[in-house]
From TrEMBL:
<feature type="repeat" description="ANK">
    <location>
        <begin position="180"/>
        <end position="212"/>
    </location>
</feature>
<keyword id="KW-0614">Plasmid</keyword>
<feature type="repeat" description="ANK">
    <location>
        <begin position="106"/>
        <end position="138"/>
    </location>
</feature>
<dbReference type="Pfam" id="PF12796">
    <property type="entry name" value="Ank_2"/>
</dbReference>
<protein>
    <submittedName>
        <fullName>Uncharacterized protein</fullName>
    </submittedName>
</protein>
<keyword id="KW-0677">Repeat</keyword>
<keyword id="KW-0040">ANK repeat</keyword>
<dbReference type="InterPro" id="IPR002110">
    <property type="entry name" value="Ankyrin_rpt"/>
</dbReference>
<dbReference type="InterPro" id="IPR036770">
    <property type="entry name" value="Ankyrin_rpt-contain_sf"/>
</dbReference>
């Protein structure tokens, strides 16, 4: 065999080995990216923080921390409720439906839960992946902003507001959306979400509107932002609203009595 042929053969063999090695490396990378992460133990937020979001006296139908999720997508919703972003990403990369419904809890979506509980990074991730910002549940949620207003993270409220505004104007004083005529600021005041009320006021929300329902069995009957703060004992909320010139429609002045 001539020297030139020998050299050519050696070069071809070396390239072939290199290509095979690269293929093996790429395969190993793909396999390693498909390894499920170790599930997060417990919730990201403290018991006190979770309790402040929902408890037997406040949004009891949205308590998420007392028992595991149920239904076909229970693992998915457990990851969302705990704030386990690594598991969420892994499941999405392996085909998890973003719009799956939490059948054990009002058919809420993952985005709705994340916005309510206050996981900004999960909200960002799900929105980036195309989650529906208008997803509803079987309770009182009709878009991601309502979920956020119910919760306690005002940063998410602001982001949700921008997302919706990019699609169409958001009327913060529209009393025709909810069947009882509640507005975002009434909802926020009733649940003592002080920073969210400040934001909504700055955005032009009318704090003196009164819920329109005539159904006396509804908790929103004859309620406004200020009256909610009074009937639920939210003293700091009362002070905030009074400082902004808000009136308790039941008393005609900025007071509970």
């Amino acid at each position: 065999m001539s020297a030139s042929v020998l050299i050519s053969t050696m070069l071809l063999t070396g390239c072939s080995s290199l290509n095979t090695h690269n293929t093996v490396d790429k395969t190993e990378v793909v396999k390693s990216s498909q390894v499920a992460p170790i599930p997060q133990v417990g919730f990201r937020y403290s018991d006190a923080e979770n309790f402040d979001l929902a408890n037997e006296d406040k949004l009891s139908w949205r308590i998420f921390y007392d028992k595991p999720s149920t239904g076909t997508d229970a693992k998915w919703f457990d990851a969302v409720k705990r704030g386990d972003l690594a598991t969420i990403k892994y499941m999405v990369n392996n085909g998890q439906d973003l719009e799956a419904k939490d059948t054990g809890s009002l058919n809420q979506t993952a985005l709705g839960w994340a916005a309510f509980i206050g996981y900004e990074d999960i909200v960002d991730y799900l929105v980036d992946k195309g989650a529906d910002i208008y997803a509803k549940d079987d309770g009182d949620v009709y878009n991601v902003m309502k979920s956020a207003v119910l919760g306690g993270n005002t940063v998410i409220v602001k982001k949700a507001h921008r997302l919706l505004s990019d699609k169409a104007p958001v009327n913060l004083n529209d009393q025709a959306i909810e069947d009882d005529g509640e507005t975002f600021i009434m909802v926020a005041a009733s649940n003592n979400r002080i920073e969210t009320v400040k934001y909504l006021l700055a955005q032009g929300a009318n704090p003196n509107l009164v819920a329109t329902t005539q159904d006396k069995t509804m908790q929103s009957y004859n309620q406004s932002a200020y009256s909610y703060a009074c009937t639920r004992g939210h003293v700091e909320m009362q002070k905030l609203l009074a400082s902004k010139g808000v009136v308790n429609h039941r008393t005609g002045k900025a007071s509970c009595q």
